[in-house]
Amino acid sequence: MPELRRERLRVLAVEQVGPYSLLRVSRGMLTPGRPGQFFMLSPPGRLLPRPMSLCLAPPGELAFLIDAVGPGTRALCALAPGNTLDVLGPLGNGFRVDVRRPLLVGGGIGVAPLPYLAEALGRPPALLGFRSEHHAQAAALVPNAEVVLEPTYVTEPLAPVARRHDVLACGPEPMLAAVRELAPGAQLAWEAPMACGYGACYGCAVELDGSWKRLCVEGPVLVAA
């Protein structure tokens, strides 16, 4: 298992990718961990950290793709080069990469962990769904991606090929539910608010298949039943 550490890291850049922000920080002594694992980033001036899956791990860096939807994420996106922030990780269970026929599937900001996962898997094909051309600019981060825009759902091109691939997906819950129907055994990265990141607060517990899962320790990647 990658070593869990907490460090104060220096912001290297904040780049716009459509409506999203790609926050690049120095790596320090942190390890990137496995694709699908996450880090807790502490926004300046906010009480609680925010969980962010690792998007890219170039040498000496960690990069996170962030959608500024609330005060915490807006504070992260407002950081400037030279600022610092506290980072804890890597946390949770990531994707298994011992698959023979990988196909990545992402929806919206669910694209965030897929660039790092794609590199670990040798750049397999990917299907990505977005609400608009503006949001779809994030597809440039994922090699070999086919993009669909609303009103077309990503599950439409997935349906005829799902059973021929090992599907690894991340996106909103309705998308993941549809992927489960098409691809039994798919690896699914679920999203939930997290306050601690290591199972103490039960803030990320979700009910799946009749049992409660703490996504920060039993997930965020779970295998479809």
Please characterize this protein's 3D structure.
With 225 residues, this protein is mainly β. The protein folds into 2 domains: 5-91, Translation factors (Elongation Factor Tu (Ef-tu), domain 3), CATH 2.40.30.10; 102-223, Nucleotide-binding domain of ferredoxin-NADP reductase (FNR) module (Rossmann fold). The protein is 12% helix and 35% strand. The chain has 4 helices and 14 strands. The chain has helices at residues 71-77, 114-120, 155-158, 173-182, and strands at residues 5-17, 20-26, 38-42, 50-53, 61-66, 84-91, 102-107, 126-130, 145-149, 166-170, 187-189, 205-208, 211-214, 221-223. The strands form 3 sheets. The protein has a 6-stranded antiparallel beta sheet, with helices on one face. Strands 9-8-7-10-11-14 form a 6-stranded mixed beta sheet, covered by helices on one side. Strand 7 (102-107), helix 2 (114-120) and strand 8 form a beta-alpha-beta unit. The longest helix is centred in the last third of the chain and has 10 residues, at 173-182.
CATH superfamily of the largest domain: Nucleotide-binding domain of ferredoxin-NADP reductase (FNR) module
Radius of gyration: 16 Å
Q: β content, as a range? A: 25-35%
**Largest sheet descriptor:** 6 strands, antiparallel
What does the average pLDDT come to?
90
Q: SSE string, helix = H, strand = E?
A: EEEEEHEEHEEHEHEEEE
Return the CATH architecture of the largest domain: 3-Layer(aba) Sandwich
End-to-end span in angstroms? 25 Å
Shape: globular
CATH fold field value of the largest domain: Rossmann fold
Order of strands across the widest beta sheet? 4-3-6-1-2-5
CATH top level of the largest domain? Alpha Beta
Query: How many DSSP helices?
Result: 4
Please, how many domains?
2
Indicate the structural class.
Answer: mainly beta
Approximately how much helix is present in the residues? 10-25%
Work out the number of β strands. 14
Poorly predicted runs are none
